[in-house]
Amino acid sequence: MMLKARFMAGVAGCALAANSVAFAAAVTQTFESSTESWTGDGATGAEAYTAPSGGLPISTSVASENKVLVVEGSAAYDASSVNGSNSGLVDMMIKASIPDDALSAPEEANVQVAVAVDSDRALKVYCTKPDGTAGWCPLGKTVTADEWVRVSLKFDYTNNRCQVRINGEPKMTEYGYQTANGTKTPSSTTTGSWYKLAKNPNSSAKIAGLSVSGCTAIDEVVLDKDGSHTYLINGTDGANAIIAAGGSVPLKWYDDNGIAWDATKKYGNYTAAESYERCLSPFSTETFALKEMSTTSTQVTFTIPETIATTGRKVVLDVGSDKTFNTKTSTDVTAGATTVSVDLPKTQGEVKYYRLRATSSN
Question: Which CATH class is domain 7-224?
């Protein structure tokens, strides 16, 4: 990732030292006591910073540490001695600096993916573009000089793609796939957070090494080649209680679907918030539809999408004189149902708003 620095994951077959580096399938590097076997122009130095939340959990309190790896030139880490699996990840804190010149292609051979800051302060990813050529693609975020940024790469080597997260959030752009297996391809009308690798791995090591170049610093590096780590939300276990500020959707739901933390963003028939309320995929084109309703009836009948017709679910009808929806009623869903009838809830005052949603509990 480069933040005037260029951090590149997967420099396959690199030889960084005369002797191979002892390496486990998953390592965490804090640089508190050493350079952690990084070679080149890197040395430990003291610096305090505030770590953004999201991504993998910081191994220990950054406030109690004061060492980072300072790079003036280039530094690299050899991970070629251990074979990798089809799912791996890299997660690190990196200090941004703004280059004088526009980005050019990485000089290192066999670079699978890189993240960097361009001269206009824009964060970009080096990957295979929709036209099939390798190049730098904007991630929709700018940074300031000396800003600490958390860069996370999650690899899918079955499909040779990589998800890019900045400060824990998947970065959705027109250059990315909506899904890891590429069922939603890049286009001007769709966005995704998975990017096709600039080059596929050419060894069983998969992620064979990391490199950083420029004038920068890195810290809290996690390199996981066996997929044992999972992303945590705001340093917790990603429980549904963790909600984006001002929103109603758990961050884990966004991350599970690989979409941006934006409740108003629409990918299918509904916004992200509406999709979550209805227990639908954000990419779903299925809809709830009113089948029958009468002002003299005590029930209202809806057709429901097949994807929510699962035993144990409930369909909830909320009503109210305003959008606080102060009254609700619900009914159980049975497997394979195509319609559901919900009692009309009794409420005080005029009913102006109705909302139908599906949930796993009332």
Answer: mainly beta
Strand partners, 242: none
Structure tokens at 112: 């699978």
CA 37 to chain centre: 28
pTM of this prediction? Answer: 0.71
> Above pLDDT 90, what percent of the chain?
19
CA distances from 104 to 73, 133, 142, 193 (A): 16, 14, 18, 23
Q: Cβ distance 113 to 126 under 8 Å?
A: yes
Domain ranges in the chain are 7-224, 240-278, 289-359
Name the residue with higher pLDDT: 217 or 233.
217
How sure is the predictor about 332, in pLDDT bands with cuts at 50, 70 and 90? confident
| AA identity, residue 286 | E
How is residue 24 written in tokens? 């486990």
Cβ proximity of 236 and 28 under 8 Å: no
Look at the block and give the residue holding tokens 């600096």.
97
| Cα–Cα dist 269/306, whole Å | 15
Residue 315 corresponds to which amino acid?
V
Nearest to 64 by CA among 44, 49, 74: 49
Longest dimension (CA), the chain: 84
d(CA 315, CA 266): 22
- 33 backbone dihedrals φ, ψ, rounded to 5°: -125, -10
Q: How far apart are CA 78 and CA 39, in angstroms?
A: 9
43 strand-pairing partners: 70
